TrEMBL record:
Location of the DNA-binding region in this protein: 32-51
The UniProt record lists the keyword Repressor: yes
The entry's keywords: DNA-binding, Repressor
UniProt xrefs under Pfam families: TetR_C_24, TetR_N
Molecular functions (GO terms): DNA binding
Domain HTH tetR-type stretches: 9-69
Protein name: TetR family transcriptional regulator
Source organism per UniProt: Peribacillus simplex
InterPro entries given in the database record: Homeodomain-like_sf (IPR009057), HTH-type_Tx_Regulator (IPR050624), HTH_TetR (IPR001647), KstR2_TetR_C (IPR041490), Tet_transcr_reg_TetR-rel_C_sf (IPR036271)
Alphabetical list of PROSITE patterns matching this protein: HTH_TETR_2
Classification via Gene3D superfamilies: Homeodomain-like, Tetracycline Repressor, domain 2
Amino acid sequence: MQRWRCRPTELKEKIIEKSLTLFEQHGYHGVSVNEIVKACGTSKGGFYHHFSSKDELLFVIHDYFISYVLTNAQEAISASTHPAEKMKKIIQSFVKVFDLYQPHISVFYQESIYLKPPYVEAIMKKRKMYKEIIFSVIEEGIEKGVFRSELPVEITGMSILGMVNWSYKWYKRDGGKTIDEIGEIYIDLILHALLTDK
């Protein structure tokens, strides 16, 4: 019997990978657990060993990329002392997520309305943490005279989040710019908007 040839972590990744393809093709409600396990060559037991439900699978798909940007943002504020350097590192990792987790992001934004309330709450908690990190870096930059004091922190922070988040709508791996080049453009735009003459 060929089932369970993958190690547990490999099987989990395979389930996510195959479900992303199926969700993109048929939509979240157009795909059953049976179809996912068939595509993976595993059993329902294999699926439920890693995910309690298809709802949890959709949550994990989102959690992968929000955890990536949150962890990198936390590392940025710990590793750097200058607000501009912190912002640069945060933007670099933020933009990179649209390349690393492109299918995850695409599926999530199409299907997130189907998430159950407990999963929505968990997602919103991490998003709030990420937003607060960006706000805190802007506030620090203003306090140190590095960022322009006339810019409202909340509007500025939400503008950064909105601008970079919209990348999922247009970014293509075979486009004219690499993800790193796009990141540098965002950094240029954002820092030139934030920085004082100092």
